[in-house]
Amino acid sequence: MHVSKSFGVVLLASIVAILAGGRTDAQKPENSSAEAPLPKDIYPDSRNRLPLPNAEYQSGRLAVGIYQPGVSNWDPQLIKASRGANLKYSMDVSDPLMEIAVLVAARELDVQYEWTQWETHGRDPKDPRYLDPAIIDIIKYEKPVVGLGEKETAIINFGREIFGQRRVSPETFAQILHLFGRKSTVDLVWVMADYSVAGAEMSAFDNRLRADQEPLLPPRPHSFDAGRRASLAASIAAASAPLPKDIYPDSLNRLPLPKREDMDDEGKKAFDQVNRPERLLRSDAMTKRSVRLYSNPRFAAGEDEKQRYLTYDTGLSDRLVEISVLVAARELDSEYEWTEWEAYGRDPNDPRHIEPAIIDMIKYDKPVVGLGEKETAIIKFGREMLGPRKVSFGTVDSATFAEVLRLFDRKGTVDVVHLMASYAADAAELTAFDQHLKEGQKPLLPAR
Questions:
Q1: Rounded distance, CA 50 to CA 44, Å?
Q2: Upper half-sphere CA count for residue 51 (Cβ side, 13 Å)
Q3: Most Cβ neighbours (<10 Å): which of 107, 126, 260, 357?
Q4: Which tens digit of pLDDT belongs to each residue from 86-117?
Q5: Whether 382 contacts 327, CB under 8 Å
Q6: What is the rounded CA–CA span in Å between residue 217 and residue 179?
């Protein structure tokens, strides 16, 4: 993704998780040579599973490759709802530190496309994002973080814990907060979390590099399943323990609830939008999303608008929204989201109510049998898109994608992808800020 404050190019935005480990420089990327024929379901103009949308930009029609409209343009309302939900142009973080944050996310999420673009930026001495090549190699090959500045060190450790270990230590968070303050800490989390969306999107639509590009991200030689299981087990155990010392009782996370009276007019407008009564009837918005109000108010309002659109206004039924979010929460081991949404799904009076057998099928990773074709397609799609990843392209099977496309058309497919991907970004936020359940709430997501 060719995005930077300096260049002002907005493209495919916004990626699920892997444990950091050792690596040697001798490893080479998988052979995804662009010279090989494209798969039959890849369009030559877009180099993914949907043709280029007819989107016009201020600079005119964008060229093929990384300078092209994203698949989200197949839903113009999603584009409209997403305006303002981008932080890259309002962050008080330097271009090199932004580069490090994106590279860490791309490495931990194994997003070949993003890594290849951003490593290219980082190795170009004429690019404002240029980095010492040793820093790139520390991230790329998962080397110990030694000999770097305190901010560079903190960002790398922070990203590895958010996406790899899925558990951020109080010490790591405290160091980030000390170095960057509340606003820039939130900004860093969301810039990295946005690549959860990008990773899911590129997996689903099998986005390919340009024909002249060589993949630069090497595969991982290790398994991370044990680490993921340990992190989920620790979060389940922590739910019944007293709140940690760095958790605020009002927000139940690592930042206190922001106060409306402390905000300027733009901040108050964003506060009122996030805290709308009709929104709180259907989700615990003010608790979970409160940290975003420490960032740029336009971002907080933009993220809220995009999430509202994806959850309630795409035309997807409440039943299918419920299933989509549950699949995402299960695949991401997101205890907070799962517990909230399982409660909705089991409540006969909630419009998102679904059969208990469907919940258990997702919850316990059971085979998908006996369901309608749309329910079946969404569960299989989410499992392939957000489950175990590899450094390559097309982790979603062509037949799975074709079935979703048949059932939901292009706009609907984009909406399903972005709905589930938005909960991947939420999972990163909840991990970073160690969001706890409400008092008396029992965690409902079991360890794998």
A1: 10
A2: 2
A3: 107
A4: 656 567 889 999 999 999 999 999 899 999 99
A5: yes
A6: 29
